Amino acid sequence: MSIFVDENTKVIVQGLTGGQGRFHGLRNRDYGTKVVAGTSPSKAGTDVDGVPIYANMAEAVAATGATASFVVVPPAGACAAIMEAAQAGIEFIVCITEGIPAQDEALTYARLVQEFPGTRLLGPNCPGIISPGKCNIGITSGDIALAGGPVGIVSRSGTLTYQALYELSSQGIGQTTCVGIGGDPVPGTNFIDCLEAFQADPETKAIMMIGEIGGSEEERAAQYIADYVTKPVVSYVAGVTAPPGRKMGHAGAIISGSQGTAQAKMDALRAAGVTIALNPTEAGNAMIEVVKNLK
Amino acid sequence: MDLFEYQGKQYFAQFGISVSPGGVADTVDEAVAAAEKAGYPVVVKAQVKVGGRGKAGGIKLADNADEVRLHAGNILGMDIKGHVVRRLWVEHSSDIAKEYYASFTLDRPNKCHLGMLSKEGGVEIEVVAEENPDAIAKISIDPIVGLTLEAATEWVAAANLDEEARVQAAQLLVKLYTCYVEGDCDLAEINPLILTTEGQVHALDAKVTLDDNASYRHPEWADFAWGETEDVREQMAKEKGLNYIGLDGTVGIIANGAGLAMSTLDVVNQVGGSAANFLDIGGGASPDVMAAALEVINSDPKVKAIFVNIFGGITKVDDVANGILEALRRVTIAAPIVLRLDGTNAAEGRALLQPHLNDQLIAEPTMLDAARRAVALAGK
User: Which ipTM value was assigned to this complex?
Assistant: First the structure.
């Protein structure tokens, strides 16, 4: 099984007519994802390589019955696109847009929780989700993922998500689902949401969690793991060598005072029984050991 | 982007928050002119983005022009924790009766806004939080509702501010919240927020961090660009639109994605090297961006080897390869470049570079191998 998406998930790409939207939307389709429509207010009635374009989400959902959307629009329009998808009844929204102002993210998150509690947002500023062999929504290169499980991956960093997939796939270890939650201050889906879903998924036997400096999400995840997760967890936290007070690329990745250091996060996770690795390769190797011992 | 105190006060003033009258000065003469305009007595304040200015002698009271000359002369050029003072803020001195603390920031775990208010201002809030946490009144603000005057009024009472300050403080806090939200601040902090002996409440200091992601809708922020970074490498990177942080090591780092860039620093460190910088070329990097990144790293004389670590997602590896070739055409890169390329269009990218590989342009199959090679080359 997979979490959040599966082989039947129908996806609308918001921004399919743009350069990035076309590239990644069609790549998702070519992977086997059911990309059923795109939206563009000015290009309704046309198509992108055979994928029909509708004027708005309401029309696209009515015509296709899609339950998921992929938001690939610039920062100034991304939050409006997310709200439009939620209003059209979309249950699962993946937003890869980087550079959305934090105030907009906080407001959009609050509106989703209040007005559309049944809608899950993944991102913004995330690589998306891939359930190998079934569904790929986002910018992850499908060929680095391996179907069949037994590992579930959740990561704050896009490129480290790919690195984790690569480390496992190259050793013949498959994944049930790989979720990139993104590095922004207000992620729609967090570590705990994914840990909960992986714990409940019978095909996921072990979990890899990739964190990074900043905030306290890893510490909260550690507490959740200690309380509720019985499956083995391997973790890597990036940014051990990051200097305090400097934003390391992601808006959320900053050590302020003694808060948010990689060391504090690793200590919390280790105390919760998580196997800690010091780099992505070590994390891959540790997971290989875990998988060997599953049988 | 962190603002200087004077910039923060100018920003506050745009939202109707009361600050002391004053002016900016880059020379002793300008300081005297600003003092005359503000009215004596004045406070001469060093403008540096670091705490502890007072203790370092960077804040002085002056009663007349001679004293302004003396203090301004001493403070300009002063080194405060590695920050050289190049600008002063000279403002009319306030008679302080009480010092409070007020701030707004994002409460990330709870995904709402957090207001903090304390009647124990003037010291670092971290110190108050540790020694007397009950002295801080916190308020969670739903972004949809915002901060109403009613809620602010309850809040100043909960913080136990002095009776005569409460009405003005509540009004000021609503304005500060507006500044925080509409002004796209990551942090809007006033410490101290004072009650004067005349019964006026106003901001005696300003600590503002702007959300860089919102700069597209704030053309006025261009005015705040003065003195933003003293590191010439960071200045150059910023002009080229790169996400760069200068460090002290010998291995130049270029990676795509913040997480991979951080991880690259970690791995270089683990195999015995030290990174010269953090550089995330971001998602969807074009050949131009890659070329610019190499040029910035090349300008750092400490760099003895360059580690390019790319795992393509939205970034296409063939674009990266073209960027490297473009950069090599444009400038002579002094240090050897070690490449690790995987992900979207990796095969195409590797094929493009294959004919150009030599002892100055080296490809390694994995991140760890590449880190080891780069560190070995830097150590020679």
Answer: 0.90
pLDDT at A251 over 70: no
| pLDDT at site A243 | 79
Within this chain, do residues B321 and B243 fall inside the same structural domain, yes or no? yes
Supply the range of the domain harboring residue B336.
Answer: 232-379
Cβ of A159 and B278 within 8 Å? Answer: no
End-of-domain residue from the set A122, A152, A173: A122
pLDDT attached to residue A115: 97
Query: Percent of chain A scored above 70 by pLDDT?
Result: 97
d(CA B75, CA A10): 65
Domain containing residue B144: CATH number = 3.30.470.20
Q: Which residues of B touch A156 (CB under 8 A)?
A: 259
Q: Is residue B6 part of a domain?
A: no
A111 and A238 together in one domain:
no
**In terms of domains, do B102 and B216 share one?**
yes
Element (H, E) at B136: strand B136-141
Nearest CA in chain A to B315: A139
pLDDT digits (tens, 9 = 90+) for A160-174: 888 899 989 989 999
CA dist B240 and B228 (Å) reads 15
Q: Is a pLDDT exceeding 90 seen at residue B124?
A: no
Average pLDDT over residues A170-190: 94
| Residues B220 and B131 occupy one common structural domain | yes
Beta pairing partners, B136: B118
Please state the domain count of chain B.
3
Same domain, B256 and B341: yes
pLDDT greater than 80 at residue B88: yes
**Cβ contact (<8 Å) for A103 and B214?**
yes
Query: Half-sphere exposure (CA, 13 Å, Cβ side) for B233?
Result: 22
Could you tell me which chain A residue has the CA closest to the CA of B347? A143
Q: Per-residue confidence at B313, pLDDT binned at 50, 70, 90?
A: confident
A152 shares a domain with A101: no
Per residue in A263-290, pLDDT (tens digit) is 999 999 999 999 999 998 899 999 999 9
* The pair of three-digit structure tokens given for residue A73, joined into one six-digit string: 């629009």
Question: Are residues A36 and A70 in contact, defined by beta-carbon separation less than 8 angstroms?
Answer: no
Mean pLDDT, to the nearest integer, of A46-53? 97
A-to-B residue pairs, Cβ atoms closer than 8 angstroms: 175
Same domain for A68 and A175? no
How many domains does chain A divide into?
A: 2
Of B108, B256, B258, the CB nearest to A185: B108
Q: Could you tell me which chain A residue has the CA closest to the CA of B271?
A: A279
pLDDT average, residue stretch A62-81: 97
Residues A187 and A248 in one domain: yes
Q: How far is B94 from chain A (nearest CA, A)?
A: 31
Q: Per-residue DSSP letters for A121-187?
A: EE-SS--EEEETTTEEEES--GGG--SS-EEEEEES-HHHHHHHHHHHHTTT-EEEEEEE--SSSS-
Q: Which residues on chain A are in Cβ contact (under 8 Å) with B126?
A: 257
B113/A166 CB distance under 8 A: no
Judge: B181–A103 Cβ closer than 8 Å, yes or no.
yes
- CB distance B278–A75 less than 8 Å? no
Q: Which of A99, A213, A217 sits opposite B213 (nearest CB)?
A: A99
Same domain, A44 and A115: yes
